[in-house]
Amino acid sequence: MKKKLLFILLVVTVLLLCAGTALAATLPCDKCGGATSKTGSGSSCSWYCQACDYTSRRSHDPNASSSGLVPDSCTGHCRWCGASAVYSSHVFNKYVSNGDVTCVKDGTETARCANPACSQTSTRTAVGSAPGHQYKQQTRQPTCVKPGSITFVCSRCGDSFGGDALPALGHTYGKWVCENNFHASYCTRPNCLFSTVAYCSLTTVQIGGSKITMCSICGTVSSSEGSVDLEASESVTVTTPDNSKLAGDLTVLVDAAPIDAPFAASAFYMLVVSMNKDGLPIEPTGPVDITIDLNPHPFVKEGSSLSDTPISEINARTFKLYRVDQETVGEETRESWHEVTFALKHGVLTFGTDKMGVFLLMPNAFVPPTSK
Fold first, then answer.
1. Which residue, among 316, 293, 309, 294, has the nearest Cα to 362 in the 3D structure?
2. What are the b/e assignments for 170-208, b being 16+ CB within 10 Å?
3. Other beta carbons less than 10 A from residue 59's beta carbon
């Protein structure tokens, strides 16, 4: 009989241990210490003492051998009420980045519970991990005909902004080159082979007994003494009476070169003045003022009466300025000379005109052919 009773008690004990806490421990009353009975189990335990009509409450407590702590997790059963719950006994102290950070959005990081037997993980936002954009300027240089751009690109994520256009540079033409009645000018910008080509605009004037033929654009001169290129002047300005710019994208070409007159020891000074675009002459639509600094250019040839006189000391009283026009009537080409009012001071020549062409600065003693 006694052996049978002991066997029954042993079976009951084993069943209680396997069930966790089928019969939970009794929580003593917080007020009188008397016996209580469980009345509820939610986020905490509730125990009622009938002796003093008082309800005691306890947080779930797994930290006991009877809590039934499960080896593969940090969960267990409350030793007071037997409730199953997840407890704050996880320890997360080694967070590793998940590699999902962007320039403008914080990434996340994850840690595994320090309990080797627990597979629970914790993921949180890595506050302040977003580094922000790192922009670098990328410039696409414009060419003569294609516009460029300025763009700012993030070296981390490729985000970009800007794209401001840089206008095409346009061609920059060099000195005119003449070959066989053609003149051409090549773009001087690197890697650009563009050129503009046109027929020479030939003009012939007769001075004394000699005829001189010239191109008013490329500056090639032919005379009885052979051919010579006029020297281009970069010291020239062309303005309208109200000081406004001339209409259109025009190039003003001023060539100057001395040629000895065949009838006197003194020389004359030839000024071929033209406005042109892409190798073609363009006339102004009204009066313009032309200012030319003659100091960078030779004024007369060596051996003439003025060859030893600095240009800055030669004054307007020594010369007259003529514009030589050509007119073709039938098969005959006629030449007309027009005296032009001018000023010559410190080597700077200034005059007004409403027509471009060949201008000759002649000694006072010279008599124009049309006036003979």
1. 316
2. ebebeebbbeeeebbbbbebeeeeeebebebbebebebe
3. 11
Q: Which residue has the tokens 């000081």?
A: 243
What b-and-e string marks burial along 94-108, b requiring 16 or more CB atoms within 10 Å of the CB? eeeeeeebebeeeee
Q: Which two tokens stand for residue 183?
A: 């003149």
278, 283, 288, 289: CA torsion to nearest 10: 60
pLDDT tens series, the chain, 372 aa: 545 544 444 444 444 444 433 344 577 888 898 888 888 777 778 889 988 989 888 777 665 444 555 444 566 677 777 777 665 567 788 899 999 999 999 999 999 887 776 778 889 999 999 999 999 999 999 999 999 999 999 998 989 988 778 999 988 887 778 777 788 888 889 889 898 888 887 777 776 666 778 887 777 776 655 555 677 777 888 888 877 766 555 667 777 666 655 545 456 788 888 887 777 778 888 888 999 888 887 766 666 666 677 777 777 778 899 998 877 777 777 788 899 999 999 889 999 998 888 888 888 877 887 644
Tokens for 104? 């403008």
Calculate the CA 290 to chain-centre distance: 39
Decide: helix, strand or coil at residue 202.
strand
Residue with tokens 């471009």: 356
Q: What is the DSSP string of 107-155?
A: -EEEEE-SSTT---EEEEE-TT------EEEEEE---SSS-EEEEEEET
Which sequence spans correspond to the domains of the chain? Answer: 135-166, 177-366
Instruction: Calculate the alpha carbon distances from 201 to 34, 216, 322, 328, 348 in Å.
Output: 127, 6, 20, 14, 27
